Amino acid sequence: MKKIFLFLIIILFNEISAQQKISVWQKGEMPNSKGLKLNSIEEKEGRITQIQETELFAFLPAKEERKPMAIIVIPGGGYRHLTYDLGGYSYAKWLNTLGISAFVLNYRLPTSPDLKQRELGPLQDIQAAIKLIRKNAAQYGISPNQIGVLGTSAGGHLAAMVSNIPTDYTELKGDWSTISTVPNFAILVSPVIDLGEFAHKGSRVNLLGENASQEKIAEYSMQNRVTEKTPLTILFHAQNDNAVPVINSILYYEAMIKNKVKGAMFIFPQGEHNIGISNKTELTDNWKKLCADWLGEMSNK
Known about the structure:
It is built from 10 helices and 10 strands. It is α/β, with parallel strands linked by helices. The strands form 2 sheets. The protein has an 8-stranded mixed beta sheet, sandwiched between helices. α3 (121-135) crosses α5.
């Protein structure tokens, strides 16, 4: 009986240590805040509509299996909620099977009443998360030069934003200011890219508000922000995605080609807006192998 109890304690310890919660901002350092005290609101299990503070959840493989690479998983949810379980934890656990450390980011939503400038809140949070992981890379047993982002849906838009907006909005001082906010690579799954003609309208309204100008819409349509400095990127989308049209990924990849950004794009006939760890067809499920091979090839260079 004692052995069974000890075994359960070991399992519990491993589970806790594998999902370490990290506060992204030190007290008093979170920019763009009105200082409101908000409660976390979970509209249903696995879906948060409001967070109290920006947080990362670390999923670390065993040290013996851990590779230098790490990926920040950015959940989607139309910038209205965070699908932190299906669009976050599930990806993190899969990445762990590849020996890759994963960090799931619960970022401030632009609909938060605490934000002074709605569209900057999510970007500030992912930029700060990248800085935090790079600064503490040795502690996590990873390389500061192999930090990527994986974003799904609206999380894909945020991943594209941090890939293409080099301006540091974190307002962090001292040695923090010398750490780059741009990831080394990006994985975009069914990403929101265009906020104009082919927009997921909910994402646009939640990020920019009801009456955004055409200039603002163009500014936050990420195909317009790609440059030769955009990091390596791989995109996955389904042709029958009725929520975020596949043209979003195509526009981004076209911009990558124009600017000679290395990467890849895979469009599957099926998958709808549900490409993930579990997929309805074997063909669509191949995205994981393609992604794993791409990551493996990149890490070997």
